[in-house]
Amino acid sequence: MTDENQSPAEAIFDVANRAARSMIAVVDTITQRGGFKGEELSTIGQLRDQCIQIIQMGEQHEQEKAQAPAEETKDKK
């Protein structure tokens, strides 16, 4: 499932990103269907917020990784 050229840290970022996106989809679907009790909503909301943070961290990591080769190329010139 992961690229063999990935470092263990990159593989963890990849899996965490996909799991977080899936978890948000599940939480949103169950919430729309009324599947949570009122007293559970704050915990579920916190879980969803944590998943969003994971996704944002993963996207930031990908952007930094994409910019690194461009910066290395500029430094060589």
Write the layout of secondary structure elements.
Layout: H1 8-32, H2 41-76
What can be said about this structure in brief?
The protein has 77 residues and is mostly helical. It has helices at residues 8-32, 41-76. It has one domain.
Structural class: mainly alpha
The number of distinct β-strands equals 0
What spatial form do the alpha-carbon principal axes imply?
A: elongated
Radius of gyration: 17 Å
Low-pLDDT residue spans = none
What is the domain total for the residues? 1
Summarize the helix and strand pattern as letters: HH
Provide a descriptive summary of the structure in words.
This protein has 77 residues and is mostly helical. It has one domain. Helices cover 79% and strands 0% of the residues. It has 2 helices and no strands. The model has no long low-confidence stretch (mean pLDDT 87).
